[in-house]
TrEMBL record:
Its cofactor is FMN. Residues 2-359 form the FMN hydroxy acid dehydrogenase domain. This is Alpha-hydroxy-acid oxidizing enzyme. Belongs to the FMN-dependent alpha-hydroxy acid dehydrogenase family. It holds the Pfam family FMN_dh. Keywords: Flavoprotein, FMN, Oxidoreductase. Signal peptide: none annotated. The keyword Oxidoreductase applies. Gene3D superfamilies: Aldolase class I.
Amino acid sequence: MEHPTDCLNLRELELLGRQRLADSAHPSVVDYYLGGAGDERTLRGNREAWAEWRLRPRMLVDITEVDTSASVLGLTLSSPVGIAPSAMHGLAHPEGECATAAAAAEAGSLMTLSTLSTRTLEDVAAAAQGRWWFQLYLYRDREVSRALVQRAEAAGARALVLTVDAPLVGRREALLRRPLQLPPDLPLPNVGPRTPGTESLTHMQYFDSLLDTALTWRDLEWLQGITRLPLVLKGILTAEDAALAREHGAHIWVSNHGGRQLDGAVTAPEVLGEVVAAAGDREVYVDGGVTRGGDVLRALALGARAVFLGRAALWGLAAGGQAGVAHTLKLLHEELALDMALCGKTALDQLGPDLLHRR
Ligand SMILES: Cc1cc2nc3c(=O)[nH]c(=O)nc-3n(C[C@H](O)[C@H](O)[C@H](O)COP(=O)(O)O)c2cc1C
Ligand SMILES: CCCCCCC(=O)C(=O)O
């Protein structure tokens, strides 16, 4: 396979992306993208969990027109698929986050920009054409975080996504064995230069040292006081926390961080039902192990409003920059539309639990 558009599915794009990355980057970068925490039980679980639900298709329905469009915090998406935040897209492609954002914009999708971006917020905002959210890792230095949030709002981000499942970095053993090596010229504009005395820390240890381990529900008020952007909490896995998110006026992103944080954590399909039930009028999104249009279908049938792609977008980016991410989104869109039609569904509001049978 030479070109991303030769790939028939996301698995083939992953293989091409991994190959390109192995040719262009330090081997620790592939470890970083691929890996999970501990024994990688949750990582494997993410890959298998969607298939636990079999589909109950309905027949003799007119499916001549299938509409996959979705509305997320008032923004219309061509398909209920967005891009999850992931660090350092500049490792996958020289255009980094700008290429990802441009592909998302072109596809009528939505990109979530990581705090650990290799391009400035303003550059990514220009490429994203209003189709982006900003993900925040809350730093110990609140003034640095305040400035980032306010810059994101001024640059046109539509929501603020606070990641709540990484007060400390998970035990990623591949990186303990072979620490992540970054090119010396890789920009990290939202991290800034290393502070004196931190030279001996690995990159992951250094990122970890910047984060506020004392973050609690009480701090949401501070965050909501410095921005008018809607708040989304990323990393919610229980009905209890979904109820708290709702009480705090936040939307909910169900995620176990791609199996990279707490190994043994539940997978999203296992908990979506309880979270959606507790979420009330709050929007619920989900990520983890999504590689097929049928996974998107299942997530929506379980009550999610949209799904987000982590590694799949990175593999597309590594495989072919903007064209690779665009092809990733196109394949999922086509698969979703086909699976909807074969299930006798012509719009997303027809997807519900009656579509699912648990194995
Ligand atoms: C290489 C990599 C970097 C990531 N960086 C971030 C990040 O900066 N912020 C964040 O909230 N989540 C981050 N994530 C987690 C993703 O947002 C997402 O939750 C996860 O990748 C979803 O699982 P999937 O890769 O199976 O789609 C990262 C994931 C990967 C694979
Ligand atoms: C918890 C600080 C380092 C996280 C780096 C980015 C990230 O979320 C990842 O999964 O990797």
